[in-house]
Design brief:
The protein is built from eight helices and 13 strands. With about 325 residues, it is of the alpha/beta class. The protein has a single domain, classed as Rossmann fold (3-Layer(aba) Sandwich), CATH 3.40.50.
Length: about 325
């Protein structure tokens, strides 16, 4: 009789176990924002970002494209223009751009351009503060130097009138830890594009747990002199900026996480061109970082060691 009771109980446990796994694997809704960027590759990189995420089976991606800018020359010494600076015909288009962040688990930004309308900015702040995720890719951390709450979300940014006196200290990786440089100066720089040796600085974080100590990433930019509030930053990885190719000669954080209210931010400074998106490590980080920003955990299996090498940039078609 006892044996007859054990089988149904085991079946029940199996059913609940499967249900838990199914719930854990529910598709996450991603809003991918583009439409402007000083990096002209954005019309090519957005479809690749979408493909990487959707091919994982974990995400459903919707692209929201902002209205265009007015074609003015980029001014890296001043904050991005506002909607009020746009011609009337473009202002009308901006009036109609109202993404509903509440319908998504995480927002991924491939955007750097005109400051969003105030209503959209307020909605975005509420979305992240209330627990929504945010992923900033490469030049998205150049955006919105005049928007204080955005600076808090990304921790540090560069260019567009940023200076340590106005925005906060620069960040470097020094003596195996994050260090802050308060010396006066402009913020945002990079050397020549080269393959990047990524060094894993946090084996305990869900995004980078199980990844190797270092691996070579395809041709990309290593940002340095990035500055901002720099509060609550967790450094996941750093890279060296080579002085021989107009770099700083120092190590700098390139993968960060932050909390903002109940929300989580994954700040990825890599991703300048299509070559970067072909990196197997970059693709794993995009998937893992987006899931973590959305849920606070990573359910993807540890990537195979064959996707990483310290002397060769492992690439694959997204």
């Amino acid at each position: 009789m006892k044996n007859l009771l054990i089988l149904p109980l085991a079946a029940v446990l199996l059913i609940f176990g499967c249900k838990a796994k199914q719930e854990e694997a529910l598709v996450l809704k991603v809003l991918l924002i583009d439409g402007q960027n000083n990096h002209k590759v954005w019309p090519e990189s957005t479809p690749v970002i979408k493909q990487i995420l959707q091919n994982s089976g974990r995400f459903e991606v919707t692209v929201s494209r902002t209205p265009p800018g007015d074609g003015r020359k980029t001014n890296y010494n001043a904050a991005q223009p506002t909607v009020a600076d746009m011609p009337e015909n473009l202002q009308a288009k901006w009036f109609d751009w109202r993404p509903d962040f509440s319908q998504y688990d995480v927002v991924v930004s491939n955007y750097n351009g005109v400051l969003w309308p105030e209503e959209v900015c307020l909605d975005f702040v509420d979305f992240v503060q209330s627990g929504g995720g945010f992923v900033s890719i490469h030049a998205a951390d150049n955006a919105f130097s005049q928007w204080e709450e955005y600076q808090k979300m990304i921790g540090v940014g560069g260019w567009y009138g940023r200076s340590t006196g106005k925005h906060g200290p620069k960040v470097v990786w020094e003596n195996n830890q994050l260090a802050l440089d308060h010396s006066e100066g402009k913020c945002g720089a990079h050397g020549a594009r080269n393959p990047v040796l990524v060094e894993n600085r946090n084996q305990n974080h869900p995004i980078t747990k199980g990844l190797p100590d270092k691996w070579l990433h395809p041709t990309d930019e290593v940002y340095y002199n990035m500055c901002g509030p720099a509060q609550g930053i967790t450094v996941l990885a750093s890279a060296h900026s080579d002085a021989n190719t107009k770099g700083s000669g120092k190590d700098h954080p390139i993968l960060l996480t932050l909390d903002y209210g109940k929300g989580r931010i994954f700040h990825n400074m890599l991703g300048h061109g299509i070559e970067a998106y072909a990196g197997a490590g970059f693709q794993h980080l995009l998937m893992r970082g987006t899931e973590w920003a959305a849920t606070g955990k990573v359910t993807f299996d540890t990537p195979p060691s064959s996707d990483f090498a310290a002397d060769t940039a492992v690439t694959r078609t997204p």
